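Question (not urgent): is this output format expected?
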Amino acid sequence: MVVFAAAGLLSGCGENSDRSRVHGKVTLDGRPLPAAVITFTPASETKGPLVGGQIENGSYSLKGNSGPLPGSYHVLISQSTETGEMFTPFPGEAPTQRMEESIPDRYNSKTILQVDIEKGSNEHNFELTTSK
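Got this back:
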């Protein structure tokens, strides 16, 4: 999934004191999300890089070079799970496990989540549900 591939490239080089710290909790149907990726994508009026990181045991924390600049952001939360189905991505390659998104698309590819990041420390918690 693209979000997972991008997560490793999200932090920049060099120290940037303009970056904010953001942390919080993420639950799905009232339970802490065990492992996922959270991505903050700048809204159209915000200048700055896409940033993100890992959610572990329902918590995430972005700080230092991995934190966002102040502004408005769309938030994407993604979690891939194995389907149990094997496939061969390219002829001659070994079969691999097919993955699927386990979080409703309203929280990732069609996100409804948006936050404003202020300079300094920010806490943003997300209570996701599988029902509409």
